[in-house]
Amino acid sequence: MRIVIAEDDPLLREGLALLLRAEQLDVVATAGTPDGVLAALDEHEPDVAVLDVRMPPSHTDEGIRVAVEARRRRPGLAVLVLSAYVERAFATELLTGGVTGLGYLLKERVGRVEEFLDALHRVASGGTAIDPEVVAQLFTRSRQDSKLERLSPRERDVLALMAEGLGNTAIAGRLVVTEGAVHKHIRSIFAKLDLSPADQVDRRVAAVLRYLDGTRSRA
């Protein structure tokens, strides 16, 4: 896995690089500015970009804009965005481009090395890794959607964990239920969201997008 890291704090930037290299991952470049990131992405063509939300010059949304531009230039690029705290508007802007190969984590997750590495590998494999706190805030806004209101509290829990990028086994472990129960809840979610098996889409992805779409229209 080839990785480019973008973080304006030199200590955190080098700390991330050391952490990933210790895991035998190939950090091909690091950068501290938006222009530096885009140049590194063009030069090294990595599999994953790990990007801080706030970078020079304004330290507002440069990282999000870089992420959007990077995915526009290289549609197959996996992106894992790091933020010091939940920035809902930035999250929904990033998610507008789709959730495949995309992660949005709070920086505190980096200290939980196993969680961080799991999220990185999930994103690199084309999956989704959205911080639970981000999901919680997005879900609060999305519940105005009439179809989402059909879901039971447990089904909302399952859908929120699906949005984080967890598979059925991980969801069962998190909720302390059987995989069979998770499968039953997911079938019910599909039915209540009018996602038919005959549809030419991945219903799991479609359910997560339906959930996230409820936030984008209100962001």
Automatic annotation (TrEMBL):
<keyword id="KW-0805">Transcription regulation</keyword>
<dbReference type="InterPro" id="IPR016032">
    <property type="entry name" value="Sig_transdc_resp-reg_C-effctor"/>
</dbReference>
<protein>
    <submittedName>
        <fullName>DNA-binding response regulator</fullName>
    </submittedName>
</protein>
<dbReference type="InterPro" id="IPR000792">
    <property type="entry name" value="Tscrpt_reg_LuxR_C"/>
</dbReference>
<keyword id="KW-0238">DNA-binding</keyword>
<dbReference type="Pfam" id="PF00072">
    <property type="entry name" value="Response_reg"/>
</dbReference>
<feature type="domain" description="HTH luxR-type">
    <location>
        <begin position="144"/>
        <end position="215"/>
    </location>
</feature>
<dbReference type="Pfam" id="PF00196">
    <property type="entry name" value="GerE"/>
</dbReference>
<feature type="domain" description="Response regulatory">
    <location>
        <begin position="2"/>
        <end position="122"/>
    </location>
</feature>
<dbReference type="GO" id="GO:0000160">
    <property type="term" value="P:phosphorelay signal transduction system"/>
</dbReference>
<dbReference type="InterPro" id="IPR001789">
    <property type="entry name" value="Sig_transdc_resp-reg_receiver"/>
</dbReference>
<feature type="modified residue" description="4-aspartylphosphate">
    <location>
        <position position="52"/>
    </location>
</feature>
<keyword id="KW-0597">Phosphoprotein</keyword>
<keyword id="KW-0804">Transcription</keyword>
<dbReference type="GO" id="GO:0003677">
    <property type="term" value="F:DNA binding"/>
</dbReference>
<dbReference type="InterPro" id="IPR011006">
    <property type="entry name" value="CheY-like_superfamily"/>
</dbReference>
<dbReference type="InterPro" id="IPR058245">
    <property type="entry name" value="NreC/VraR/RcsB-like_REC"/>
</dbReference>
<dbReference type="InterPro" id="IPR039420">
    <property type="entry name" value="WalR-like"/>
</dbReference>
<dbReference type="GO" id="GO:0006355">
    <property type="term" value="P:regulation of DNA-templated transcription"/>
</dbReference>
